[in-house]
Every structure is written in C-alpha cells, then in structure tokens.
Amino acid sequence: MKALSIYYTMRGRTKKTALAIGDALTNYEVTYFPVELTGKFIEKIKQFDKFEKGDFSAIEPGLSTLDAAGYDLLLFGMPTYGSKPPSTFDEIIKRMAHLSGKKAIIFVTARFSGGKALEYMKESIEAMGAQIINKIKFRRLFYLGVRKAKKFGQEINENK
C-alpha cells in the first residue's frame, strides 16, 4: 500500500513529526511532499509572507503535479499560526487531483492550542470529498519529541 505525507515546516517541528509517523507506517510505502522554508530566519519569514500573499512560485513545480490517485492514504501535517494552518494548506488541497474518495489523516503541531486549525483542516479536506479517518494535535511549548508521533503512526499502521 502507498501513502503520501504532505507537510509544511518552518522550524522543523512538523517535519520531525511527519517523518516519525512515516517511519512507523511499515505497511506502507511512504512518499513525502515537503514544503520546507529554508535559510536564515528572515528568509523563512519572507517566504512565509509570499505564500500568505498567494505567491506559490517557489513550490509551483510540486503543486502542479500533486495527484492523490496512486495513494491509499494521505497524511496532511501543518503547523498552526493563530488558529489556522498556513494558507499553503488551502493551495495544496485546492490543487491536488483525485482527492475525492481518498482516506486522509491530519495532524497539526502547535505550541499552545491547535484545535481550531485541526478542525479547519478537517472541514476543508472533507469539502473536497476525502474522508478523515484520524486526526491529532501534537502540542508542546518548547521541545516536541517524536514518541507520541511514532505511537500514532503505529496505530495507523495497525488499523489500515
């Protein structure tokens, strides 16, 4: 079986979580679609601002080929900014071909809450015709470990 893990990360917390979940999915061949902001902090902020203003040219080649058709499971991982995921999330699901009818798992990383972002993602993905089969928020003020993420991945793996 095949899984596609789509994640957005600025400082590495969401990436670390996505990779830990993916490593635990031993019944799946996992492919990643990362949106990673790179460079010094100010460069990351500038890229974040471009995305928030609708300029996705930095990731256009990947966005234009996003297709869920070959996957049995989709995983969406996003950080929370305020009470929503970054606007890149909306662009990803808008552009993804063959999302309808797919099974999806969503997770957010947050320093404080994250619940509203998780609900927003759930509603948005379901509006595109996919079925959310599990969701979780990974919340930690400073250090976000991977133990909980690995356990979550193992649960997904067992309940395929």
Q: Could you tell me the radius of gyration in angstroms? A: 15 Å
Question: How many domains comprise the coordinates?
Answer: 1
**What is the rounded distance between the termini?**
9 Å
Level-1 CATH class name:
Alpha Beta
Order of helices and strands: EHEHHEHEHEH
Unreliable residue runs: none
Describe this structure in words.
This protein has 160 residues and is of the alpha/beta class. It has a single domain, classed as 3-Layer(aba) Sandwich (Rossmann fold). The protein is built from 6 helices and 5 strands, in the order βαβααβαβαβα. Helix 1 runs parallel beside helix 6. The longest helix has 13 residues. It is globular. The model has no long low-confidence stretch (mean pLDDT 91).
Short description:
With about 160 residues, the protein is α/β, with parallel strands linked by helices.
Write the layout of secondary structure elements.
Layout lengths: L1 E8 L3 H12 L4 E8 L4 H12 L7 H4 L9 E7 L7 H9 L7 E8 L4 H13 L3 E9 L7 H12 L2
Parallel strand pairs: 1-2, 1-3, 3-4, 4-5
Looking at this protein, list some descriptive labels:
Rossmann fold, 5 strands, globular, five-stranded parallel β-sheet, 39% helix, 160 residues, alpha/beta, 6 helices
